[in-house]
Amino acid sequence: MSRKKAVKGKGGSKSPKASPSSSARTGRGLAAAAAPSSGLVYPSRPSISNSGEFYDIAFKVMLVGDSGVGKTCLLVRFKDGAFLAGSFISTVGIDFRNKVMSIDAVKVKLQIWDTAGQERFRSVTHAYYRDAHALLLLYDVTNKASFDNIRAWLTEIHEYAQQDVVIMLLGNKADSTHDRLVKREEGEKLAKEFGVPFMETSAKTGLNVELAFTAVAKELKHRTMKEPDQPKFQLQEFVDKEIRTAGCCRS
Length: 251
Ligand SMILES: Nc1nc2c(ncn2[C@@H]2O[C@H](COP(=O)(O)OP(=O)(O)OP(=O)(O)O)[C@@H](O)[C@H]2O)c(=O)[nH]1
Ligand SMILES: [Mg+2]
Hints:
Elements: E1 4-5, H1 20-26, E2 54-55, E3 57-65, H2 71-80, E4 94-103, E5 106-115, H3 122-129, E6 134-140, H4 144-148, H5 150-160, E7 166-172, H6 184-194, E8 198-200, H7 209-225, H8 235-246
Parallel strand pairs: 3-5, 3-6, 6-7, 7-8
Antiparallel strand pairs: 1-2, 4-5
Helix pairs in contact: 7-8
The protein binds guanosine-5'-triphosphate and magnesium ion (MG).
Region (Disordered): 1-29
Family: Belongs to the small GTPase superfamily. Rab family.
GO biological process, one term: protein transport
């Protein structure tokens, strides 16, 4: 299989100029960043970009959910292995980071779009839904309203995103034991109702962060490269098995 090269860190030709960490922390977001053009998956076409790692296939993943649920922190934890502690600076507009993962010997590039949860940026976010291959929909386990709003987010997703988009529900801030207002069972129940996979995460401790992105990357890779006689990848089964294997202490 021919391999392409990923632009390291931020963006490609349509890249916004600031990383989510910089925009989130400085408030310099990109409300008017160019909407991504459709389709990032080129399984057999060779191409080389400026610099960075080689990859075989690429997908767009979007982080969505209310303001303050931890979307930017989740992305920074996944990309840089760090937690953005301190005062909360809301993302302005939209931004993205790339990460190449090794999935079953295939190099999968995820272009991860970090959206602003604030209502005033909703129209910007809408423009990006249609090109997303996967959506990570977050709520905050210490914020009941963010959980109650998941239904509205799913309605919006169904309105703007592709029908076959991969959706995963994430209950973030699972480390906040004392402030928790949403039980894990409630998240599981809601996810079942909507037929989407679910897990709890913590951008602070790293709990299940890698797993969330790996699961999505595996699902997308399977869909793209599946042999006709190969069974369908069971995302929730994979997640449950990984969590069981890791026991209480995955990070
Ligand atoms: N305890 C805990 N705090 C978190 C976690 N993730 C994020 N936070 C905190 O929650 C606040 C909001 O995090 P952000 O990642 O900026 O939230 P966001 O969803 O990007 O918000 P918008 O950009 O406004 O949409 C910050 O103060 C973070 O430090 C987590 O897993 N655990
Ligand atoms: Mg943010």
